[in-house]
Amino acid sequence: MALSQGTRSAIPVILFLLAGFAAPLMAVIWFSFMPPRSFSFAGTPTLENYATIFESTSYISFLWSLGLAVVTVVLLAAICYPVAYGLVRVFGKWATLLTLLFTIPLFVSENIRLYGWVLFLIKNGVLLGSLKSLFGLQLESMLFTVPAIVLGMVYVYLPFMLFPMTLGISMVPNETRDAAFDLGATRWQVFKEVELPLSMPGVVIGFLLTFVLAVGSIAEAKVLGGQSVIPITHDIEIAFTYSQNWPLGSALAVLLMLVVGTLVVLALRRFDLDTFLGRR
Amino acid sequence: MANGSKMSRRNFMQQSALMAAAFAGAGSILPGSAQAAREKELNILCWEGYNSAQVLDPFRTKTGATVKAESLTNDPTMINRLRAGETNVWDLINVNNPWARKVMFPEKLIKPLDRARFEPFFDKMMPEFKPPYKWAMDDSGTELLGMAQRFGPYSFVVNTDKVSRATAEDQGWNLWNDAANDGKYGILESDDWNVFCICCIAGFDPFKTHSDEEVAKFTETAKRVFKGAKVVGDIATMNQSLVAGEIDFHLTGGTYSASPARADGHPEIRGITPKTGPMAGGKGGISWIEITSTVNNPELSPLAADFLEYVQSPEMSHTVAFAEGTFNPVSQMGNPDCFKLFTKEELDAIQWDSLAEEMSRSVEYDIVPDYDKLLDIMTAAKREASGG
User: Fold this and answer.
1) Fewest CB within 10 angstroms: A33, A48, B14, B331, which?
2) Kind and range of the H or E element at A134?
3) What 3-state class would DSSP assign to B110?
4) pLDDT tens digits, one per residue of B124-138
């Protein structure tokens, strides 16, 4: 009967979350069980949409989304760790300026930045046009290819990997490194045994953040890839627009949530953030 | 300290009670004020152009009304918004020709207009729009369902520096049946129209129910056409790729999509209507005519009809033709007072020189009875083309 003070205080937030977060999610899940191409919640629940997906070639889109996300995460890890290390340990007073330079593009819409890349990469554009007029080089453009999509994704999601990594590296106490050196560890040993393990919370958060964002990306494949690749998000968009098959779109969205959710849970089991952060 | 926190909690509770009362008060006031506000409120669901400030601002100033317009780029989505219960949100809906007569009026999604008030406007339009204009009328020919304005031929677009207009018109849809053209063309992301175009490439009329044999041919053609495409994208991407030389021609396009590039100094980008094709009467092209109707809104804004009248004036028709985004001919160009407002450059941009000829070689956009099936096949083909 009597709710605790804490629970009572939390009621507004709980109601807000139920209405603003849980309800739309439940609506999508419920809609995925409605008859195909219907627009009402009142239909007889069916598994038809899921059957359609499993009988179709939707797996191609799922594989593209997951594959592109994995490639993006791996490339970003390779690019961002050295940069993050530099920001924390090497660049000194320049670090603030560099951080600012990495942050400023976030204030410009993603689509505008991607169209900027189109103008840069397109035939007779900034890159190929300059090469042609300056050196007489005539090269094929890489626009509308898979590498162009990967370039766009790496470019767009870079800050989301860089900043958690920077934070992770800055959490490694200098004293620990010094102690390792004093005890005769080589540079490589210090990196492998001390710095990398202690900066893992930042690295894992960066991995998860960029992976989840990259799996949900759509603009890169559309704008830079010229739809040479159809990621699952684009399939969902087509279902909700041209196909007007909201239940199918909902079922695809539910499956995407399940796949990504499972992968994230598995990753979190492997790397327990609480242990990293020293709470246990 | 404990006392202090009690006090502040009490203050908090008082504040909350006040806010709750304010919300409750607002709740009891809102519905009434919303009703009254319909007199000064207008919501338009449309293709881009009608939502531009050039068109809406003078109307806002004139009426002092709050006018909201949402633009979408395909008809089925707009109609399904009404089907999903948004008839009580919108006052006007602007979609292509067949929907008012064949779908929205039979499904009671739109209301007829006052014939006495609106039919005289059709008298001033170009000859093919003379009243009773087929697409503006219901099946029985008694109710006027909407007003006509923008229209145009819409088949495909070429860069005439790469493929001449004569070659493109003669070859028509077979441009896509020539394997040598793989990698030289793009496809506009306009999936409903792409279904029509792929039927034409496959050699049959899109606007009928298709036999199993035709569906099989459609499947094969869709796979081949998407596999051979260099790029699929929006109008800006198509025009940019044509101008830059990434592609030589693209599927689904016409005055509507080519006019922004033409107006920007690229007359080599040209909408093409094939001379012959698989449609009724051996016609090779497809055209569209927009019909704007009043939604069957239980509290329809009285401004809806006023707006329809407002956009008929010569000046506003010219503004609609050249509103931001894409540029299109308007039926009101039949009125000399309207026509004289178009400059030579504007007429060039909308391919006025070949407009009549192209329209006569086109059938009017219609509903594809098995659209859902063909669209699903095409969506799969597009996805599989990316499967390597």
Assistant:
1) B14
2) helix A126-135
3) strand
4) 999 999 999 999 999
- Contact between residue A238 and residue A41 where contact means Cβ atoms under 8 Å apart: no
Nearest to A211 by CA among A76, A25, A61: A76
- Across the interface, whether the CB atoms of A242 and B240 are under 8 A apart is answered no
CA distance A135 to B186: 29
Provide the shortest C-alpha distance from residue A95 to chain B (in Å). 38
Q: At B288, phi and psi to the nearest 5?
A: -130, 150
The verdict on a CB contact (< 8 Å) between B237 and A226 is yes
Best of B184, B195, B379, B384 to disrupt the A interface (most A CBs within 10 Å) is B379
Yes or no: say if A146 and A228 are a contact pair by the CB < 8 Å rule.
yes
Residue found under tokens 């894992």: A204
CB atoms within 10 A of CB B236: 14
- CB contacts < 8 A, A to B, total 82
User: Which residues in chain B are contacts of A223 at CB distance < 8 A?
Assistant: 233, 237
> Where does the pLDDT of residue A40 fall: very low under 50, low under 70, confident under 90, or very high at 90 and above?
confident
Model confidence band, residue A276 (pLDDT cutoffs 50, 70, 90): low
Q: Which residues contact B294 (CB under 8 A, 6 or more apart)?
A: B91, B92, B110, B111, B113, B146, B300, B304, B305, B308
Nearest alpha-carbon partner for B296 in B118, B148, B146: B146
The partner residue sitting opposite A241, judged by closest CB among B77, B236, B385, is B77
Domains of chain B: 39-151+290-352 (3.40.190.10), 152-286+366-385 (3.40.190.10)
Going from the N-terminus, what domains does chain A have, and what CATH number goes with each?
Answer: 64-231 (1.10.3720.10)
CB contact set of B174 (below 8 Å; sequence gap of 6+): B201
ipTM: 0.86
Do B246 and A144 count as a contact with CB atoms less than 8 A apart? yes
Q: What pLDDT, on the 0 to 100 scale, is given for residue B325?
A: 83
**Residue A128: closest CA among chain B residues belongs to which residue?**
B244
